[in-house]
Structure formats: C-alpha cells, structure tokens
Amino acid sequence: MTVVGIDCGAKNVKALILEEDKILAKSSVLSGFDQKAAAQEALDLVLKDASLKKEDLAHITATGTGKEEVGFSLGTITEVGANAKAINSLFPSVRTVIDVGAEEGRAIKINDKGKVIDFAINEKCAAGAGTFTETMARALEIKLEEMGSLSLKSQKAVPMNAQCAVFAESEVVSLIHAKHAKEDIVRAVHDAIADRIASMVRKIGIEKDVALVGGVARNIGFVDSLKRDLNLDLLIPDDPEFSCALGAAFAAAEKAKGG
Amino acid sequence: MMEKFKEWYEKRHEYAKEWKSKTGGKVVGYFCTYVPEEILYAAGVLPVRILGSHEPQDVTEPHIFGMYCPFCRDCLAQGLKGKYDYLDGIMIAQSCLHIRQTFTSWKLHIPIDFSYYLPMPNNVQSKRALPYLTGELKAFKEALEKWTGKAISDEDMKTGIEIMNQSRKLTRELYELRKQPNPPLTGLEAMYAVVASQIVDKKDYNETLHGVLEKLPQRPAEKDSKVRLMILGSEDDDTEFLQMVESLGAIFVVDDHCTGSRYFWNEVTPNQNPLEAIAARYVERVPCPSKDWPERTRIEHIKKLAQDWEVQGAIVIQQKFCDPHELDIPATIESLKQIGIPAQFLEFDVTVPVGQFKTRVEAFLEMLKEEDLY
Fold first, then answer.
1. Total of domains in chain A
2. Could you report how far apart the first and last alpha carbons of chain B are, in Å?
3. Phi, psi (deg, nearest 5) at residue A90
4. Are the beta carbons of B353 and A104 separated by less than 8 Å?
5. Of A12, A62, A5, which is closest to residue A32 (Cα–Cα)?
6. What are the pLDDT digits (tens) for B101-124?
7. How far is B367 from chain A (nearest CA, A)?
8. Which of B36, B245, B247, B309 is the most exposed place for a label (fewest CB within 10 A)?
9. How many Cβ atoms sit within 10 Å of the Cβ of residue A65?
10. What is the domain extent for residue A2?
11. Count of alpha carbons within 13 Å of A253, Cβ hemisphere only?
12. Cis upstream peptide for B70 (omega within 30°)
C-alpha cells in the first residue's frame, strides 16, 4: 500500500511517499504565496520521482500550518500529532519531541505508544524559530548554511536577549559595533534561540529520550547550543524537516487500512 | 431562537440609547462585576457593563501603562472614542488596579455627571468584610439618592434584588441545559446570552430568556457528539475565539469567566436588612482571583463545574498581563490535571490571533480524542 504525507509548512512544503515502512521519495518546495500550487508541485515531484500516479495512492494526509490549503488531501492531522507518530516509529524510546520550524517551535510529550500527553507551541513571536536565524544571517552578511559551522568555532559566550526578531537584529548590530567576533555573535544567536526553545520544553517537563526535528535541526550550531542548554543528548532523524510529513504518511496508512 | 442576545450584544449602544429615550432614565456604566447592580435597579437606573470592542486602537497610550491588560485599555478606548457618550454616570467596585486605572482615566478625561468608586474589600474571607461592605453599600445608596434626587425605599430595594435574582436563576437554568450529552445550545450562544444580561435591562433580558428556556428543550439536538470543553480565566467576551473552537468539533459546556458564570452564579438571600443581604452575596460569591486569598476557594469551584458538566478538557485563557489570573493559573491547571482533565493555556490580546490559536486548539482536541480518531 502506497500513501503520501504532505506537510504544508510556513516556509516549505514537504511531501513524502511511503510504501509500507519504506520511504520511496521525498520532495520539498518553497511554500511561497500560493500554498495550494506549492502543495501540488510537491506532490507532482514525489510522484514523478517514484514513477507513480496519483491513482496509485491509497491515501493522502496533510499536516502543517497550511494543511487546509492542500486541495487533494483526504484527511488532516495536526503537526503535533504527526510528529508524535513519526518519532514514536523512528525512535520508540523518545518521550519528548522538540520541533523547530521556520515560524513555530513546538515541544511535545508522548507516551510509549506515541500518544500525545501534553504539548506547548511558541507564542506569537518568531524569535525561537528558523526565520529568526535567517534574519540574523542577513544581518551578519553570511549564508544561512554557514551559521552552524561558524558557531562551533566560537570560544566565547556573549549574552543576547532574543525577545523579538526585530529588536534582536538591532542587538546583533550593537554586538557588531562592539567588535565581537562574528563566530561569537553567531553562537549568541543560537544560544538565544536555544534559550527560548528550552524554556518552552521545560514548561511541559523534559522526559528522556529527547528528539529534535524540523528544519532548524540541520543547523549544527543550534543543535550544539540546545544540547548545552538542556544538558542532554538529542536524537535527530536523518531528514529532520520531513518528520511531520512522515507522521502524516503514517496517519494516511492507518486511515487507508481503515484503522 | 437565541438571536436576540446576539443582537443586543452587537447593538449595545443603540439599545441603551433607545432605553434612555423610552424611559427618560439614567444609565450608569460599570467596570467590574462586584458592582451591586441591585441598588442601581432599586434607584431606577440602568447599569450597563463597559466592555471593549476587540478592535485595535491608538488612543490610550498616554493614559494607561503598556503592561496593563488589553481589556482595560480597550474599555478606556471606547470611552475616549465617544462610544459611551450616552452614559450619565460611571462606577467601579475595587477589584484589580488595571481596570481601576480605566475608571480613573475615564473620570479625568471624559466629562461625566456622576462617578463612584466603591471600595469593595479585597479580603472577602475576613469576618470584617461583611460589616464593612454593608456600610459602604449604605454610603453608595445615599450617594445615588442624592444624585437622582429620589429616595430608595425598602420596597425599591426588594424589587432590585428580585430583578437580579430572577436573572441569575434563569441564566443558571440555561447553564443546566448544557449538562446534557448533546446540549441544545452552543457555548457561543451561551456567551451572547450572559454578556447581553450585563448590558441590557434585566427586565427585558429575563422576559426573553424565559421564552427561550421554554423553547430550547424542543430544539433538535445535534447528532454528532462533540468534545466537551470548559473555558476559564479572566474577562472574556471573545466570540470569534469561541466560534473558531466550536467549528472544530468541540462544544463549550461551562465556563468560569467574570463575563460568564462568575457574574451570575450566586443569588442574594433576602433578609430584614437588604443592604446586608446584598453585601453578603458579593462577599460570598465565586471570587475573582484578585480576592481569592489567603485560601484559594475558586479552584474547588472550578473542579466541581468540570465534574458536574462532564468536561473532557479545559481551555485556560487570560488577558495578557492579568496578574491575579497569572497567579492562579499554574495551580488551576495542576488541580485539573489531578482529576484527569487536561488543560491548554492561551493568552488573549485585544484581537485574537485566530490562526495560531487554531493550530493549538486543533492539536489539543486531537490529543483529547486521540483514542477514537484512528
């Protein structure tokens, strides 16, 4: 049985084809202004990649901020529920899932069956999410991809207060004027985001093991900061930004089986 | 069937103006549910609760500190913009500093014939609260008599108490219907009704609600059972939020808001001394968190509501920067958890960020009904 999970995120739409427990293909396209079109494009891409047609699919489940926009989906699941399913399957020992995407950070507490026990989602502000890193990369005139490795070179912790993405940018500018090394400022940015995420996780209580998913999990500088802040190791799947899409695919498979 | 309440809620100013021209009476705007409306009704004055509009505004910055709650600023904005220009008086009973600032600014910047600050005691658990408030109510009654130029008789007081009690009794009956497995009314409809009761003449409200209560039991109930929620926290007349949640397969069956059940829950038990009877009601009512100390009594009340109305989950929502509620919320959430009721905490502003709230509410509902979803 072949199913698709599609995650319509704030920044990217991710689609994934699942055949039984095997991932056949993945795609990611920018969400842009027209999420509906982006979702269609993501679906077309995975189908092409797996040499399948839409008719071959037993079910499609959508998740993510724009899940209602996915015209062709047969069902929806929230990002919280999708993450729980995906991580319970990938890492059965995990009880706390941290998901850091472009606009939202989430902390989810699950039991051994992958049932959601509690969760927290960041408030209005995007300072604890991926878009914030992008803004900071722009202010520092470096590529987003360079942020991680540069951060690891830092030898010095510089305090920074990331209460708001806009004000944090001016704080970064002050740090630049104070002649701090670029790598220390980058680390300060990651530490600040890690602070925000960690306090959100503490709100629901940290129970081991802990997994980190979402696009920001690709940023090794942030991962380092978060590990230091929480003082524990983090389990990160190979393609952390596809966690929600994978969970949605699991939900689709369950639905198709009539479960 | 319940459209009248929504109409009153939406056209509150038109209603009050019409009431004035029809009766020639005075209208007093009040800021807190500790205001003894019984005495205002006894004086033939119409009390209307001043509420916000849920529209962004830019006129209160010079008057109210930025970290005071959005509700107190929203209320003041209505005054500054002239929405309440028909009021003859304003009054407040001491509860929290934020809303008192609204009252004070209003008095200072908006010309008004009559204004009254009632020093409602904060320590209602003290034995001295009752005699103190009884004395203050006497002073208030006299101030009112002086302003209207008309003495308030014992008979008037009795009428005032009856009008208020009748309204409380009927609204309670409305809430009782929400105990049913498939309640004949939504949480949104209940909110329109209770809030309407605070802004229209209780005599009109009682008559309309009486008719509604006769018809409601015959209303065809929805077939699908929904997730039963309770909503609790500070001032809340955010209809948009309730509508959003109830569109996701949930129904609010009970609340603990000062715009909701806290407003009408307790009745006055009449005795020989009407002022003392009224004072007892306000001292003993389900308290606002600003008055619920040293003992926390409200949480037990909330737990009982949750059990009696068989709720599956609770939305704990508060006005941003509402300190009294912020103090109570961790203990409230923990107590609910102990009786098996998960809670989701949300923070209000003047306008509701519907998209973000929706994401969280959807996940919360998914969590509550996970067993039978897949």
1. 2
2. 37
3. -75, -45
4. no
5. A12
6. 999 999 999 999 999 999 999 999
7. 6
8. B247
9. 22
10. 1-91+240-259
11. 19
12. no
pLDDT of B353 reads 75
* In B66-218, beta strands by DSSP E: 89-93, 114-118
- Do residues A135 and A8 share a domain? no
Whichever domain contains A9, its CATH number is 3.30.420.40
- For B262: left if phi > 0, alpha if psi spans -120 to 50, otherwise beta; the answer is alpha
A252: nearest CA in chain B?
B374
Q: What is the per-residue pLDDT across A139-178, written as a single tens digit (0 to 9) for each?
A: 889 999 999 999 999 999 888 766 666 677 788 888 889 8
**pLDDT higher for A125 or B280?**
B280
Are B362 and A251 in contact (CB < 8 Å)? no
Confidence band for A126, pLDDT divided at 50, 70 and 90: low
Nearest by CB to residue B359, choosing from A65, A115, A254, is A65
Whether residue A47 is found in the same domain as residue A57: yes
* C-alpha torsion A248→B361→A204→B312, nearest 10: -110
What secondary structure does DSSP assign to B183-230, as a single string? -SS-HHHHHHHHHHHTTS-HHHHHHHHHHHHHHGGGSPPPSS--EEEE
Provide the 3-class DSSP secondary structure of residue B95: coil
Would you call the peptide bond into A209 cis, given omega within 30 degrees of 0 as the criterion?
Answer: yes
Asked whether residue A22 falls in the same domain as residue A139, the answer is no
C-alpha dihedral (B204, B205, B206, B209), degrees to nearest 10: 120
Residues A86 and A97 in one domain: no
Q: Which residue has the tokens 């008599």?
A: B145
Q: Which amino acid would we find at residue B82?
A: G
A259 in the same domain as A152: no
A109 and A87 housed in the same domain: no
In the numeric block, which tokens belong to residue B198?
């605070």
Query: Helix (H) and strand (E) counts for chain B?
Result: 15, 8
ipTM of the complex: 0.77
> In Å, how far from its chain's centre is CA B253?
16
Task: Give residue A174's pLDDT.
Answer: 85
Chain A residues in contact with B360 (beta carbon < 8 A): 121
Tell me, yes or no, whether A49 and A114 share the same domain.
no
If asked whether residues A128 and A171 sit together in one domain, one would say: yes
CB of A145 closer than 8 Å to CB of A137: no
The whole-angstrom separation of Cα B242 and Cα B231 is 9
